[in-house]
Amino acid sequence: MLLLDGRPVKLGGRAFELLQLLVQHCGELVSKNELMAAAWPGTFVHDSNLKVNMWSLRRSLGDTQIEPVYIATVARRGYKFIAEVQISMGEIEDDPALAEPVPLPRPPLLRGIVGREAEIVEIADLLTDNKQVTLAGAGGVGKTTIALAVARTFAPQCRDGICFVDLATISDPTLFGSALVTALGIRGNTDNSLAAVLDYLRPRQMLLILDNCEHVLPAATIFAGRFMADTSPSRLLATSREPLGTTTEHVVRLGSLASPKPGHGVPLDHALRFPAVQLFVSRAAEWSDYQVVDDDCEAVASICHALDGLPLAIELAAAQIGRFNPRQLVEQLDHTLRFRAPAADGAPPRHETLMATIDWSYKLLSQREARLFGLLSVFSDAFEAEDAIFVAEAAGLSPVDVVTGLGSLVAKSLLSAQARGSSLRYRLLDSTRRYAAEQRQTDPACGNAQRRHAQRVLALFEQSEQEWNWREPTDWTQRYLGRIADLRAALSWATGEDGDPALGIRLTVAAITLWSETSILSEAQARFKDALALAKTVPCDDLSKAKLACALGWSLFYARKMSNENEVAWLDAIAFARLAGSIEYQQRALVGFAFYLLQIGEVPRAITCLEEATGLADRDRDLTATSEADRALAWAHAFAGELSKSRPVLDRLAATHSLAEGRSRKDANEVYRFITVRFNLPFVAWMQGQADTAARLARDAVDAADRSGHWVSQSNALGLAALPVALETGNLDALAGFTERLRRNLERERISRWVPVERYFSACLRDVRGDPRAVEDIRTAIEELIECRFLMRIGSYLAFLARAYLRQGRLAEAREAITRAIGHQERQGERWCRAELQRVDAAVLFQAGEPLRAEKRLQQALTEARAIGAKTFSLRIATDLASHWIATGRRAKAVRLLAPIHDDFTEGFQTPDLLAASRLLQRTRPTARDRGHRQQSGPVHTRDA
After folding, report:
1. Which member of 83, 118, 702, 869 has the greatest number of CB atoms within 10 A?
2. What is the Cα–Cα distance from 100 to 91, expressed in whole angstroms?
3. Which tens digits make up the pLDDT trace of 447-482?
């Protein structure tokens, strides 16, 4: 393992071989032939491939400055490792710094910067005092390079990191929000992408870099305006050929690199003080082992001046030094581009200078190199040699043509290369990509390039589906999330006017796993809807339709509002799966539909679906969805009040799935199942009188999700188990901690349906702690849940609201709340909470002065609680009833009722329920005060006091 400043550096195999050989011969010259023999044993390769890999190695080591620290070039001979080497034995932890996924995308590696040091410091200082800074300038002036250098300087002020967003990877302005969401790693259903980004940035202190804004200028301007109006302490650094145009934007216009005026006989030592000359000389030495001499000084100055000091244009010219000497380059620029001594009023704009330089470099390419250059423009982001080989095959280029061509294009600065992971990845800069695209569109041999690109992306994502089962999850996500720009481009072409709809459908199906794994739900919903609608109009197999409909159903499942569109998606999925004869997808669709039905409060329909789903398991016991079906049916039985059917299944599943220690996909799936069964088991255990067990199970699920980074699963565990159990057991410290966790999760992955749930429990906490204003926030959260059709457990939420109203003496509102609660419970078939709602209804009747009706209601509630085996509810009801009987002189009857129920508990003795029962039983002991027969008008329960 290679460590740089204590952090691991991933190198490709060839780069590592090169470094190892150089280090073994530290301080000695290692020839080019020796290095090529080590990296490519028994294979002939072009010299440019060695240069590409050495360049990539240097960048990985951060060794890009003019004076090297690690690897020095020996002109025309080879390379030498010049840093001190110390050999020692040490211990290295397993996979240091790789255990956690990289939270933000890595920006492009920074090359050595020439002549911009003062500007970099100045811009970093501006960011300290200005919320938005825009670097404006011509293409090729170095905006991206300077922005990255500024970010490195400004990093100590960025508590929450730096996020780089390359907007050149998107051509559709409507994808601007998706690009930001993806780059920031915001997961979940964001509903409004820009609002989600602002919500994410608001509590954070970050630097957000928007690179190449000119392609999507209106969208970038709208976002920048909203960002400036927000309260976030973060900073925005944009690069664009023109300012964004917000009222408070601070614009820094970047000029060219300074160069000496030609014709003045500038001596070499003086010329090398100019950054344009420094850049030319360093890049020429890097690629062609060039050593500047006095005789070349005038020519180099002329080149830099003719190219307007544009860094990219200078690099393109320097890359030709191996073919032309400096004087010949001046002639080329003079005769071909007519750049010599332009008149002041007729000087070409700098962008035209750059494009003319690119055009000149292009015309110096061989026919095969030129064709390859054009073909590479189909890639929106970084790509590997295998990708280029696949696309170029249809244009008549062989793998050898491609491999040697890539090396040549890198050597000519028309293409960049860098090591990412174990491979070398290539990338066109924005200006060169756009020029290359123009050339591709005029070359008949490249007519199938976009189709081949889409086919390659399809192959990659079909491969990703297979690798999902065995590749380590973090590695899988980084590997394929980095391909999302090309996925978007391929989908845009395939579903466009001249595309291939069938290929677009296959692409969408193949990418389901990526969207699911990364929880980019808003974009996923739109893609699934479009593909499913398309699949209904063109020939498409039923299994693909079933997969799309299932994916759409799950993506809509996390939307803010449960719409009928969700039901249509699941019914489509079931129908298509049946037509396809797929038992697996029938079961998946039935389970998904049942979860939807449980959310909207249709428990009987959910049970019907799940009984069919579990019945399918008898036909195929290897189904991966079987345990999900069993768990969902057990959950549905619990809601229906059938605890005796639910608990054994949940216990069996809990015992089956353990916390795996590894990081494989199998281990991750085992952890997921460990967590999900604990969504449901804690609440059932609590109802059955096991408060401590319930709290432990809920915390286990939350902690397991925390360790594994399953934020959606943790939100589910919090909302379904930890929060309600903490509230019902009176553990206010746990309730406070869990609400804060859910709040943080919603910043990471904004699952809209959990927002009002978090508000509800936060308000309940405030209410229990004595805040009289909290009751209105409880009511508002409940109304939002009802409006969103997130009706699961809504009856119990309304019952808590009724109790809160009673504590404030608001009898009419309490009566209305409990009436609504009972109505929801009966309509939804949620028998589990019927007894508790009857208990609260009795409390309302007591306060209304109707003790006889209240007592009868409590007796009905106790019968109901006993019928379903809900010991906790039985204890609460018996405590209320016993309190009333004691107050009305029926002490012995009260003891006979409450004592055996209380004594049947084996845990949870510090919960409010058991403490209230214990205190009441203590009061039944005969005392002088008791003999006074003090009367009370109703039950006293510490939970409601």
Report:
1. 702
2. 20
3. 999 999 999 999 999 999 888 888 887 888 888 998
